[in-house]
Structures are given as structure tokens and as C-alpha cells.
Amino acid sequence: MRSLYLTQRFFVVLAAVTTGFVAAFFLPALLRPVQGVLVLLTLLTVVDALLLFLPGKTGAGHVFARRTLGEKLANGSDNDVAIYLENHFRFPVRVQTIDEIPHQFQRRDVLFRHRLAPAETAVIRYQLRPLKRGEYHFGAVNVLASSLLGLVRRRFRYDQDQMVPVYPSFLQMRQYELLAISNRLTEAGVKRIRRVGRSMEFEQIRPYVAGDDPRTINWKASARRSQPGGDTLVVNHFQDERAQQVFCLIDKGRVMRMPFAGLSLLDYAINATLVVSNIAILKHDKAGLVTFSDRLGSIVPADRRSGHMQKLLEVLYKQRTKYLETDFELLYTTLKHKVRQRSLLILFTNFETLNGLQRQLPYFRRIAKDHLLLVVFFENTELRHYLDTPAETTEDVYNQTIAEKFAQEKRQIVLELQRYGIHALLTPPQDLTINTINRYLEFKSRGLI
């Protein structure tokens, strides 16, 4: 009996009957018809309840439901969820499906209505976008079934206590991986970089064909291969330099706790790290990772063997921000001892003021002496939106003047880093991945690493 619920239709009819009894107090002729309606309502309610417990074609009558989703969810991406429904009653039913999703989503719109014929199957599809990494616990799939009378509903519960971990956005990583394999990265916004000069490794010599650059002709090898009656020209064939080290350095200090569009700056940096590391491995480079705050975090040596991306994924899944100030001196000493080969270092951090940068600038200059350093920090998109809104009052003008001062300081930070030969990237959080890939490919094409 605990699985039975009276519907809104039942209470509407009951309210009409109650109104009829009140009217019968003044008009006694209405008493018998209203009593008849009450008896009929009682009988129909009992019949409706019995219908929901009648045997079905495959045993006991019921509506079967099953939730289907991946073994893990991707943070910051839309993850597909499907609920399969099967009607095992001998008659059509109306069903309301309520999925008990984790409380982190704070959604109240996961109620779906369907009408199922006998033996009919339906699929409910919707998407969930998590904004934090960690464990997410799903509750039951509740199915409330009612017959065509619609006076009583019977509840069925399935798939209780399902835990799904939320990892960094591996869906985004796979998307860029497929585009890179099919040479379609430009569709995602990655720019085509024109190669400047020769920054490639010699691979082999091959016969000259029309269209080859005459500057690549190997005259000595051509002379040795020349035959009587004709000349055989050969050219040097180059390939991109390989096995270069690319380290992503992730600041986990308090500055990375700032949220944009629900995701923290740390999560944006983690998702970008996953994609850039995968692209680097596809380009035959080695990808590594260092996380730090006031103390050293995780260190993953640069590698490109199979299984390395899974190792990076597991390490990134566990990262959490700290509340203390970041120690960049600790980062410098760690890189001095752990990274001996010249590498591309992509540092994800954030600075709001020029003074904040100048305190850390000596460590950046020391790191840049041994490596190619790219400092990536974030544009305040909320501030930019506020500046683009027309001012209507004197107070708005004053506030926008202050906001413009902060925006100008961000641009000064870029100029200050470039003045000391340090590469800088100021990017909106939502464009972080694309802009970082573009910089990596630019460095590759220019032979800077």
C-alpha cells in the first residue's frame, strides 16, 4: 500500500463531491445524486488500484526502468544520461519518471511524462553538466504509473545508490584528439600556423619531384647518384622535431579558487592541461605535470608511452585548491632539480595586480633562463561584461573607471612579462584550451623548443 498514491484527478473529483454535499444542505434533492457519485468514485478508485496490481504478460504487471550513463562523468562538459522504460502491463499506462540526481546539480526539472502502450519501450535522454570533480551519488529512478482512469498511481523504484566519479573533461580531450587525428583542428578554432625558417629534424633523402623547394636539394648526394645520360636530383626530407618535453605547471593557490560560469579557475586549468598534454603526445612530444601551492603537489615526469594519459587523468582528478599564498620559489627549486632538459613550461596561474606579478617576477626570470616559459593567466570576463554595459548614472561612471583600471593592469602584466622575454597569454577562461593549443603549435612551428 505504501507504493500507492492518489492523483490530482482524484482530489479534483473529491472536491466536486464535497461541494455537492454542501449544496445538498440547501437543496436536498441533490443529496442522492451526490451520494451516487461518491460511491462511484470509491468503486472506480478501488478498481483502478486493482488494475495496477494485475498480472502482466511477463508475470507481475509493472513498468521497468533502467538508468544508463558512463562509468565516469566529464567535469564542465554535457554528459548524456538515458533512462529506458518498458511497459509490462496488459493495458496502456501513463508514467511520470523522476530521476534522483546528485544534489550537486541543484536541478528540479528531471520529471518526464510518457504514455506507454502494452509492451512498448521508451527512452528518456537528458544531459548533466557537473561543475566540480569528485564522487556523485545518484538515487533511485522513480516511476509513477497510472491507468487511463488516472485516479491512483503506483510507484516503482530502480537503480538505487549508484556512485559515479567526475573526472577532468576527458570528453573535451577526445574531441580534440579526433580533430587532431583527422587534421580538422581548425574547426575548433585552432589556427593554421605558417612555418618560419627551418626548425625540423632531418629524416631521409628522396628523389626530387616537381613542386619541391629547390633549397632542399642535396647537391652532394645528387652528384653521387648521377648516372650517365641523365641527372638524378634528391632532396632532404624533414620532419617536425620530436620527443620535446612539455610540462604543465598548475598553481593550486587561493587565486585559482575564483569561479567563472560555475567552474573554478583550477578546473579550467586542469581541463586545458588534459587536452594540451594529449595533443603534445599526438605530436610525438612528451607531456609532464607539476602541481604546487604553498607546498609541492604532484609531479608526473614527461613521457609519451601508452597509459601515460590515464596516469595524468588520475593525478588531475585528485587536485584541490589551497587557501594560502603560492610559493613560486619552491616551484623554481623543484624545476631546477627535477627538469634538467630544456622544456616548454606552461604555467597556469592568475594575477590581478601588477604588484602581485612583480613579487614573483624574479623567479619567472630564473625559470625562463633554462626553459621556454609561457605564463597563462585569466581575463575577468565579469569585469569585461560590466565595462561593455553603458553607464546610466554618475555612480556607474565612477565604478566603470575603477573597473577599467583593473582591466588595464591585466594588460600591463602582459607587457611586463614580455619586457623580460617571458611569453604571456591573457585569455578568457572559456577560451583557455583553444588559446593554449594555439600557443603550443606556434612554438613548435617557430622552433622555439
Structure notes:
The chain has 449 residues and is α+β, with helices and mostly antiparallel strands. It has helices spanning 8-26, 31-51, 170-181, 219-225, 265-282, 308-317, 328-338, 354-370, 381-388, 394-419, 432-446; strands at 4-6, 55-56, 59-60, 63-68, 73-74, 79-87, 93-99, 111-116, 121-128, 134-138, 141-146, 152-158, 162-167, 200-207, 234-240, 245-251, 259-260, 263-264, 286-292, 296-303, 344-348, 372-378, 423-427. The protein has 11 helices and 23 strands. The chain has a 6-stranded mixed sheet, with helices on both faces. Helix 3 packs parallel to helix 5 (265-282). The longest helix is centred in the C-terminal third of the chain and has 26 residues, at 394-419.
What composes the largest sheet? Answer: 6 strands, mixed
Number of domains: 3
Within CATH, the superfamily of the largest domain carries the name: von Willebrand factor, type A domain
CATH-defined fold name of the largest domain: Rossmann fold
The CATH C-level class name of the largest domain: Alpha Beta
Indicate the proportion of strand residues: 25-35%
What is the radius of gyration computed over CA atoms, rounded to a whole number of angstroms? 33 Å
Count of extended strands: 23
Please identify, by name, the CATH architecture of the largest domain.
Answer: 3-Layer(aba) Sandwich
Helix content: 25-40%
What's the quick description here?
This protein has 449 residues and is of the alpha+beta class. It is 37% helix and 28% strand.
Q: How is the topology of this model organized?
A:
Layout: E1 4-6, H1 8-26, H2 31-51, E2 55-56, E3 59-60, E4 63-68, E5 73-74, E6 79-87, E7 93-99, E8 111-116, E9 121-128, E10 134-138, E11 141-146, E12 152-158, E13 162-167, H3 170-181, E14 200-207, H4 219-225, E15 234-240, E16 245-251, E17 259-260, E18 263-264, H5 265-282, E19 286-292, E20 296-303, H6 308-317, H7 328-338, E21 344-348, H8 354-370, E22 372-378, H9 381-388, H10 394-419, E23 423-427, H11 432-446
Parallel strand pairs: 5-13, 16-19, 16-21, 21-22, 22-23
Antiparallel strand pairs: 1-12, 2-3, 4-6, 6-9, 7-8, 7-11, 10-13, 11-12, 14-15, 17-18, 19-20
